[in-house]
């Protein structure tokens, strides 16, 4: 059984996810923790639940999703995996982080790459890597088929989609990928977004004003 614990961190109100199975093997997805109190909250939960973190995964590498990458790598002694197309994105964070007030940001280097169609193991559980660019050039989504749950980053939100006006963004591409990749998942698939509350594929197919049926009216 896959367990998903969410935390909301940093001024962008980013959702960081901790995934773990019955054996206590786990992975951190998009560690957005920046303040010491945020890092302590995540670490305390991991210790209290006796979770062994095996890897850190980034859905994409915008600043709000990578603020805690280096801290997490150092604290848990595990590798960081990103999509190869996110290399320039993660490198650019070091340049503009001070402009957002993150003067203590530590840049992070990936230790490996996420490849579309490959799988990530969390203990005995398996996540499929889906490639859904548009918000960011190397954006991926992690889908757990057995429980029909997806960590979607900033692709699809409840009633919205990821912004596409940042460098590397492509509005038409994001719309196309949501429809051709995410909307092919079962309608009762739970979407855990990078910001805001969870939703389902079925709800967004009908109600999302950008990609749902209402967008066609």
Task: Walk me through what this model shows.
The structure is a single chain. This protein has helices spanning 36-48, 63-66, 69-76, 87-96, 171-180, 201-207; strands spanning 3-9, 14-20, 25-29, 52-57, 80-83, 112-114, 119-122, 125-131, 140-144, 149-153, 156-157, 160-161, 190-193, 199-200. The longest helix is centred in the first third of the chain and has 13 residues, at 36-48. It has a single domain (3-216), classed as Metallo-beta-lactamase, Chain A, CATH 3.60.15. The chain contains six helices and 14 strands. It is globular and about 45 Å long. The mean pLDDT is 97. It has 217 residues and is α/β, with parallel strands linked by helices. Helices cover 24% and strands 29% of the residues. The protein starts with a strand and ends in a 10-residue tail after the last helix. The chain has a six-stranded mixed β-sheet, covered by helices on one side. A six-stranded mixed β-sheet has the order 7-8-9-10-13-14. It has a two-stranded antiparallel ribbon with strand order 11-12.
């Amino acid at each position: 059984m896959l367990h998903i614990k969410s935390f909301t961190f940093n001024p962008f109100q980013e959702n960081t996810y901790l995934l773990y199975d019955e054996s206590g093997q786990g992975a951190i997805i998009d560690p957005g923790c920046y303040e010491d109190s945020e890092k302590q909250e995540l670490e305390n939960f991991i210790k209290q639940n006796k979770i062994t973190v095996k890897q850190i995964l980034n859905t994409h590498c915008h600043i709000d999703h990578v603020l805690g990458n280096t801290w997490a790598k150092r604290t848990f002694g595990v590798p960081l995996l990103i999509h190869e197309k996110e290399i320039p994105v993660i490198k650019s964070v070091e340049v503009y982080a001070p402009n957002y007030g993150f003067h203590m940001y530590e840049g992070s280097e990936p230790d490996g790459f996420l490849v579309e169609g490959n799988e990530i193991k969390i203990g005995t559980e398996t996540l499929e890597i889906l490639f859904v660019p548009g918000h960011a050039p190397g954006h991926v989504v992690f889908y757990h088929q057995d429980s029909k749950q997806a960590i979607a980053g900033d692709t699809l939100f409840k009633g919205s989609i990821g912004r596409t006006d940042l460098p590397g963004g492509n509005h038409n591409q994001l719309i196309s990928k949501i429809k051709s990749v995410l909307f092919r998942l079962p309608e009762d698939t739970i979407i855990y977004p990078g910001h805001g509350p969870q939703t389902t594929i079925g709800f967004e197919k009908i109600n999302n004003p950008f990609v749902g049926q209402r967008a066609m009216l």
